[in-house]
Q: What sequence folds into this?
């Protein structure tokens, strides 16, 4: 049973480009969470999704960021027109049951904007 | 709004010594998690604490939860170099909301 899979592991984008980060949850998990980690900081919640639904996006910036979790395929975190301040590690976690149950984390995608 | 504070944020300790990391949180919660993160790696779940007075131990690490004081501790006994990592506590808001993380404690165990 593979764990939470994120790709790519490392992503470099120039300012103004788009970044697409993918997350495949653990088998049997239908709840996905995205977190952002800045250097020397803890993880900040961004968005919580269930299949085809956004449950809580209170941590998402209002502009340029979007997330989806389609019926088929991985969850996608999309950042349009990236800026240097978007450079961070983005972690995805999944759980079998929603809310504050234990979630399992992927390896993260480290985004660098140059 | 739930806030989670850890201290210390940085900890350098000698091998063989004992120390405690503290995690305070600001509102009622019924579960608390401790995670370990190695540099450039993901988060590894260490402990899940579900009730007041809960104590869990794994090797040289022991975690406890006092829900009345809104405090959890992670105690390290006879530290070894392999324990060097960043340790995060994460607290669950009541209801259907995701975890709130502390800033982490970066532990360095030196000979």
A:
């Amino acid at each position: 049973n593979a764990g939470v899979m994120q790709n790519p592991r490392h992503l470099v984008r120039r300012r103004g480009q788009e970044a697409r980060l993918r997350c495949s949850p653990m088998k049997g998990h239908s709840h996905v969470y995205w977190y952002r980690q800045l250097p020397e900081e803890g993880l900040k919640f961004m968005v919580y999704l269930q299949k085809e639904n956004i449950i809580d996006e209170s941590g998402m910036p209002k502009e340029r960021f979007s997330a989806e979790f389609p019926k088929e395929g991985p969850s996608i975190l999309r950042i349009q027109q990236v800026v240097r301040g978007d450079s961070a590690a983005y972690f995805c976690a999944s759980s079998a049951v929603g809310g504050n149950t234990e979630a399992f984390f992927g390896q993260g995608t480290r985004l660098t904007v140059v | 709004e739930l806030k989670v504070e850890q201290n210390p944020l940085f900890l350098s300790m000698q091998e063989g010594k004992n120390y405690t990391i503290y995690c305070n949180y600001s509102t009622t919660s019924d579960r608390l998690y401790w995670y370990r993160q190695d540099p450039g790696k993901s988060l590894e779940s260490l402990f899940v604490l579900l009730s007041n007075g809960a104590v869990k131990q794994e090797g040289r690490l022991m975690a406890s939860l006092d829900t009345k004081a809104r405090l959890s501790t992670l105690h390290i006994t006879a530290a070894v170099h392999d324990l060097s990592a960043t340790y995060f506590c994460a607290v669950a808001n009541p209801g259907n909301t995701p975890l709130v993380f502390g800033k982490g404690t970066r532990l360095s165990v030196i000979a």
